Here is the input.
Amino acid sequence: MSGMGGTGGTGDMVALAAALRAEVDGEIRFDAGSRGAYATDGSNYRQVPLGVVVPRTVEAGARAVSVCARFAAPVLSRGGGTSLAGQSTNTAVVIDWTKYCTGLISVDAERRTCVVEPGIVLDELNHRLARHRLQFGPKPSTHSHCALGGMIGNNSCGASAQAYGKTVDNVRRLEVLTYDGQRAWVGPTPPAERARIIAGGGRLAGIYAGLDRIATAYLADIRRGYPKIPRRVSGYNLDSLLPENGFDVAKALVGSEGTLVTVLRAELDLVPVPPYQSLLVLGYDDICAAADDVPRLLEHCSPTQLEALDGRMAQLMREEGAYLDSLDTLPEGDSWLMLQYSGDSQEDVDEQAHALLRAVGRDEKGANIAFSDDPEREQRMLKAREAGLGVTARPPDDRETWEGWEDSAVPPERLGDYLRDLKGLFQEFDYDHPSVYGHFGQGCVHTRIPFGLRTAEGVARFRRFLERAADLVTSYGGSLSGEHGDGQARGELLTRMFGERLVTAFGEVKALFDADDRMNPGKVVRPQPVDGQLRLGADWRPDTPDTHFGFPDDEHSFTRAVLRCVGIGNCRSHSGGVMCPSYRATREEEHSTRGRARLLFEMLNGHADSAIRDGWRSTAVRDALDLCLACKGCKSDCPTGVDMATLKAEFLAHHYEGRPRPAAHYALGWLPLWARLSRVAPPLVNSVLHAPGLARAGKLLAGVDGARAAPVFAEESFVQWWRARDGEPPDPADPRTVLLWPDTFTTYFHPAIGRSAVRVLEDAGFRVAVPTEPVCCGLTWISTGQLATAKRVLRRTLAALAPYLEAGTPVIGLEPSCTAVFRADAPELLPADQDVQRLAGQVRTFAEQLVHHVPDDWRPPRLARQAVVQTHCHQHAVMKDDADRALMERAHLDADVLDEGCCGLAGNFGFERGHHEVSMAVAEQGVLPAVRGAAPDSLLLADGFSCRTQIEEGGTGRRALHLAEALAFALDGNLPSDRPERLADRPSPPSRTARWATAAALPAGAALGLRLLRRRPRSPG
Here is the structure.
């Protein structure tokens, strides 16, 4: 078979894909969508892969390499895909280990070792090790989603490397596979063992003999040419082959970025989980002064972490409204060093901090000192530092900042001077004050720089800067990379750091393992140019489509909104927050926020080889977006604020423009209309929707999943109840007046919530008004991409609300998803409409009104019990739940606010055919188990209709209340001690008799109607 050389002809590609499908136990994907989703990583670079293999076992992954070798197809092993230097993108067959090959094979607690498969995520590994009170030491900021295989490939570090070293320092043995099929466990190899292997002959003997020859030939160069610093990550680890380092082949392969071998399994060293920790924060006038002080601090202490952040990052966090609690705890200064101490007792870790302060002559009570031994507070502060990459990626001034020189490292004792020279270089190139932060205890500097990567001039300056910066760090005895590796970003610069002879040695090692350059080609050895294969570049010419949304925070550009994703990959985390529920359920890259953003980027058709060529009509993009729950979790949880729900709605609007839509878009997208029509005969409508046979047929026609029960319409809607009340409507201008928003879900399905809200608001002294004419926020049309209709609905609603908008009357939302529309979606759909802007400013949640705007003498009724609370995703993303927490505290509720992610129903998503399995998988990851585990006397609170429905239908045996209902019940006295939700007034499903009678009557009625039509005399023609 002729070699593919990285591209391959169509025939070769078809044959390769067929062979992989026939011989590999895995998912084989050569479709445009999969290739587009893997076209880039967290770097500036982009290369569309040949295809993607997701092996179900390690053996299947090894077999995939064998098949690729038969076709001479390049291979790229990939973990979390967070690499910042381009080593996780290539025109190759990508093997993604993270879906299935996630095993913790064994743990030896006494020896403190474990054996893992390459796809296991670091946080998941440490979670499984927790019962042994052990952990893997290195902890990059991507710990929630980086895979151990990727950490080994990159030689990852993180803040904890201050205590535990780099990944290379924690790897004991590796099971590796060469491209030509040699498989072996490798590790430290004493001379006798080496001699035995070489005497055995064969391919493995050739590798060991070759490594021995290279190590001997370049012995002096290695000893002289490798910087003696804590954070030398650049280049191959030839120093691990030195006699004094035990000729450790495993360590030599760590950090080789998949260019030499495929890692199949790894034996790792583990460290004890420290039982106690404390955090000391020192303030400085500027970041260079902070760096100057690092050597002095290290003379007097041995911290677990020594991190830095500068005033520029703090400024960006404040402007973005991020990590404000952490910022408030920082001492005086414009830059800070954070020292974390670990020990066996609280007294020990506290004393370590106090001893340092005494040693350096700092006053413990000084304004530029902050000390904490509260673990939660420490984690919040360290998380703020971890967030540096996301915070600096899209600063509020809308400059684009990029990696490329984001992790250089120098000897810690020279760090201050290096930073001054680096800042001088920024100034020389007119790269205006990038934030500088990082792992200062080991001399590693992080930054993102506003490179101009869209023009030829900007790209040329980018290249010149990298060359100058490489010379600068080398002059300080430093490393191009202190953490993220070389890849394409620094591979071409290695000669400047190591010199020709050592780079020649790298080439000889590459030839020894991979003579034909098929393992991640173009990285480290014979690298692609630093300014080649850019994700943007001077030849990037994306489409600039007209859109329905205004994208006001993205320069009114859909393209700019798509570019928010820089590949950090937090959407691939397995727990905590909301983002991304579909990834957590499927473990599929294309069903993560990042994967979808990559496909939208490809859809813009900015490159000649764009994977997606059919624009808005793309079925690949449609399919990737199909499992997006539109939960908006990414809007808040993504460090750069990607709003995939809005991007999905925009895409659907264009994708289905001028052609039929899925049935669910008519059935569920037009739900407010059908709900109003239900008022003709609610009992009959309910009976039809639940009648045997008819319900099934109706769901089939409506595109609703057969496993879902239709929600029950209330016999009396909230608005009908309101109309029946006596009394004049309050004056909109009365400062006591509030307009209670009658959303579709409250009005027609759970009207008791509206009645409860009226009661509580009136108890608080407000005069409540409710619109009695049909109004709607347009949510269901927005979520199904029927944006033209949504705009018409919104404009009618604005006209109906005009007197209240003119008077500045507060608008109180009960359903979080509808409230979020007014706060976020409506201003983006109608950015020039002043009434929309007024409404966005006047709408409040129920809790916000009762916490921030009540009379001073009002107190909520006392509930005095525990509560399990599920926050709606849209509230989490847009309004936040601070006011809800405050209101529950004032009502003496001991609230356990779940951090278990999305409920999985997410409006229309969980009802649509084909989504039920994913919907329930999302729910079972946290929300439903938490509800099942709640004490019988606990309140279950969920303000969102979707959340309440999922809890009720999820086999929990429980029902959730709205906070308004709980407070209204408390006004009447004590709640029942067992399952207090029994008090909730919910519409009852039709009786069995009614359902069967309807099932029998409707067909008979239809038949009678047909007979009557046939008997009707015809008009003379």
In short: The chain has a mean pLDDT of 94. Residues 278 and 374 are 7 Å apart (CA to CA).
